[in-house]
Amino acid sequence: MIDKHRAWFHAELRRLLTEAGRDDVDAKAETLAMLRDALMIGCFLDDPDVTRRTFVRNARWVAGLR
């Protein structure tokens, strides 16, 4: 079930990045998925507000939404 969800999530990220006209969508989707994984762990280990701000800042940068 986890593998199926992760495959779906990666595909959705690639689709959204493609629709937004971004280049290198595979690398960007992998990075965004990794950032989401880090967000989940970071909220457990550190201050959730700081972790969320860091995630949003970096995810926007990766997606080209500066």
- Percent in strands: under 5%
Q: Uncertain spans, ≥5 residues at pLDDT below 50?
A: none
Q: What is the typical, i.e. mean, pLDDT?
A: 95
What is the helix/strand order? HHH
Number of strands: 0
Approximate helicity band: over 70%
What's the overall geometry? flat
> How far is the first residue's CA from the last residue's CA?
34 Å
Calculate Rg over CA atoms.
Answer: 12 Å
Number of helices, where a helix is a run of at least 4 consecutive DSSP H or I residues = 3
Structural class: mainly alpha
Biggest sheet layout: none
Task: Give the SSE map.
Layout: H1 2-19, H2 25-45, H3 48-63
Helix pairs in contact: 1-2, 2-3
Can you tag this structure with a few keywords?
3 helices, 0% strand, mainly alpha, flat, 83% helix, single chain, 66 residues
